[in-house]
Design brief:
The chain is an alpha+beta fold. 22% of the residues lie in helices and 26% in strands. It contains 13 helices and 34 strands. The strands form ten sheets. Strands 5-6-17-13-10-8-9 form a seven-stranded antiparallel beta sheet, covered by helices on one side. The relative contact order is 0.11. Belongs to the glycosyl hydrolases 36 family. Transglycosidase operating by a ping-pong reaction mechanism. Involved in the synthesis of raffinose, a major soluble carbohydrate in seeds, roots and tubers.
């Protein structure tokens, strides 16, 4: 029996793509529902489902064997973040895989040359697997010892135990990997109608300007004095940040008397909870008189007005967690009582447990989260954001978003809870901030990605860690590979960095080709202005590339962090040209045994490679109609 679309089919127990077997020994209970594109795109696809008794809050369904085909997976190595993993067989698919791209030698194309969107004959096909949300359930992929690709389906609430099972994974194929991913996400958008593709979202203007974030400069010790010292320091060097993120440290928080403190030198106390939506005492002290402002709200309002006027800031954002603070809100605080919060203890999913529970999640699990009643979430966000807007704040960075997946018990499950919160959050942003001013952070789960219709900027990877020498090459590789997927939903934000750091040029070059915001977290008087002036124009604007930066096609399935031979090439487009950044990311990687970044090669060898105009995948899009294919290459380092 054969079912399927033009190139994707299920035939005699095999999932076939253009005549090539991708999965063998496909189980009898696996179904395929074809979807054929009417667009002028050489892609088509199908939904993968399973037939079962449709019962259970956590179910695992083997699909079929993946053998001898190169793949790139994006999986959550922490609950908050994804990174890449490469392999060639099913047993190598990590737990919590949310994106799987497979390279297939296309036997049909070898006989009948098929042309891709860039005019080049293709001998490869690419097939993407996107595990989806279906009803109140979320699917992810993983492998087993039999080399099978496995669907793991869960609701996050034992009481939510009935599912349909017909649309658990969407798979699509085509000759251009980037077109395939775009087609797949847009097709899922069309059928599910629960989220929007990036092309239909409004991107905030702040992304086009150079910025400064307070986090690594002060951590939670940020103050009014620190803000002004930092901005004055930039001004003296001839650099004018146009957007500012006041990160964690401005809010009014406290720990329960019985709470277990969890705070390191460069972190918050994850046991703290929000006690008031207004700023804390540090931002209510007048620096000249040293006393607390009589009116609670005038501190932040005065500070923002002064720094905008004195330093020419266009946008000021502030940080908050999606639950208010790391430990949520304090239920018995007078300012929080109207939100009817309950103390909820997180339960992480099985895949997250296998991949490793980080210290942040451990602390939150010990102390619990003061969770605003979902029906009150809009009231909470609107009260918070309307107050911030009244002080001159232009937008928010909303952190720790994936914690919602652990709080679904008793609230209809993880998907139901996430959708209620994201709907409330986006409604409040739309009402209070005119330019869709929100940055999504610590948000790498599909519960959110497939539920957000407006949010347009997302942090693309784990943090820039200035003190961890193992983290820097890992960071650049992760943001590039993750952007292959998350860049279809939101504009990836490749995070801040320090301009005066041993790896500053490395990070700066990545941001220059990333198509992302460019901002630093320098301490006052600690700047490399020569570097910053390469990234920021005199008026504070940046020359931002047009697309999310992604690995070139020949890098998609190599391992630039571990294989000791591959360079990472990142491509992008400008208005009239292409751009490629080449990075040596070898020597360090996320260790799945120790659950931390690990340097595995102390002395990284110099690598050689090649670049061609064809590496810029969509270069014909910016060429004149009569373009012959001739190109000129300019080397930034070489100067010619």
């Amino acid at each position: 029996m054969t079912t399927g679309a033009r190139t994707v089919s299920l035939t005699n127990g095999k999932l076939m793509v253009s005549g090539q077997c991708v999965l063998s020994d496909v189980h009898d209970n696996v179904s395929l529902t074809p979807v054929v594109s009417n667009d002028d795109v050489l892609c088509d696809g199908a939904f993968i489902g399973v037939k079962s008794d449709h019962k259970g809050s956590l179910r695992v369904f083997p699909v079929g064997k993946l053998l001898g085909l190169r793949f790139m997976s994006l999986y959550r190595f922490k609950m908050w973040w994804m990174t890449q993993w490469m392999g060639v067989c099913g047993c190598e698919i990590p737990f919590e895989t949310q994106f799987l791209l497979v390279e297939v030698r296309n036997s049909l194309c070898l006989d009948n040359a098929r042309t891709g969107s860039d005019g080049i004959d293709k001998q490869e096909m690419y097939i993407v697997f996107l595990p989806l949300l279906e009803g109140d359930f979320r699917a992810v992929l993983q492998g087993n010892e039999q080399n099978e690709m496995v669907i793991c389906l869960e609701s996050g609430d034992p009481a939510v135990d009935t599912f349909d099972g017909n649309h658990l994974v969407f798979t699509a194929s085509g000759s251009n990997p980037f077109d395939v991913v775009t087609f797949a996400v847009k097709t899922v958008e069309k059928y599910q109608k629960t989220f929007c593709h990036l092309e239909r979202k409004k991107i905030p203007d702040m992304i086009n300007w150079f910025g400064w974030c307070t986090w690594d400069a002060f951590y939670t010790d940020v103050t009014e004095e620190g803000l002004k010292l930092g901005l004055e320091s930039f001004k003296k060097g001839g650099i004018a940040p146009k957007f500012l993120i006041i990160d964690d440290g401005w809010q009014s928080v406290a720990m329960d008397p019985t709470g277990i403190e969890s705070k390191a030198e460069d972190t918050a106390n994850f046991a703290d909870r929000l006690v008031d939506i207004k700023e804390n005492h540090k931002f209510r002290k007048h620096p000249k008189e040293g006393h607390v402002e009589k009116e609670l709200g005038c501190g932040l309002q005065r500070i923002i007005a002064e720094i905008k006027e004195q330093y020419g800031l266009k946008y000021v954002y502030v940080w908050h967690a999606i639950t208010g603070y790391w430990g949520g809100v304090k239920p018995n605080s007078p300012a929080m009582e109207s939100y009817e919060a309950n103390l909820v203890y997180p339960m992480s999913s099985a895949g997250v447990e296998v991949n490793g529970v980080c210290n942040v999640l451990e602390s939150i699990m010990m102390n619990g989260v003061g969770l605003v009643k979902p029906e009150k979430a809009y009231d909470f966000y609107n009260d918070l954001h309307s107050y911030l807007a009244s002080t001159g704040v232009d937008g928010v960075k909303v952190d720790a978003q994936t914690i919602l997946e652990t709080l679904g018990k008793g609230y209809g499950g993880r998907v139901n809870l996430a959708r209620k919160y994201h709907e409330a959050l986006e409604a409040s942003i739309a009402r209070n901030f005119s330019d869709n001013d929100i940055i999504s952070c610590m948000s790498h789960n599909t519960d959110g990605l497939y539920s957000e219709k407006k949010t347009a900027i997302m942090r693309a990877s784990d943090d820039f860690f200035p003190r961890d020498p193992a983290s820097h090459t890992i960071h650049v590789a992760s943001v590039a590979y993750n952007s292959t997927f998350v860049g279809e939903f939101m504009q990836p934000d490749w995070d801040m960095f320090h301009s005066q750091h041993p790896m500053a040029e490395y990070h700066g070059a990545a941001r220059a080709v990333g198509g992302c915001a460019i901002y630093v977290s320098d301490k006052p008087e600690c700047h490399d202005f020569n570097l910053l002036k390469k990234l920021s124009l005199p008026d504070g604007s940046i020359l931002r590339a047009k697309l999310p930066g992604r690995p070139t096609r020949d890098c998609l399935f190599s391992d630039p962090a571990r294989d000791k031979k591959s360079l990472l090439k990142i491509w992008n487009l400008n208005s009239f040209s292409g751009v490629i950044g080449v990075f040596n990311c070898q020597g360090a990687g996320w260790c799945r045994v120790t659950k931390k970044p690990l340097i595995h090669e102390e002395h990284v060898e110099t690598l050689t490679g090649s670049i061609t105009a064809k590496d810029v995948d969509y270069l014909p899009r910016v060429a004149d109609d009569g373009w012959s294919g001739d190109t000129m290459v300019y080397s930034h380092r070489g100067g010619k």
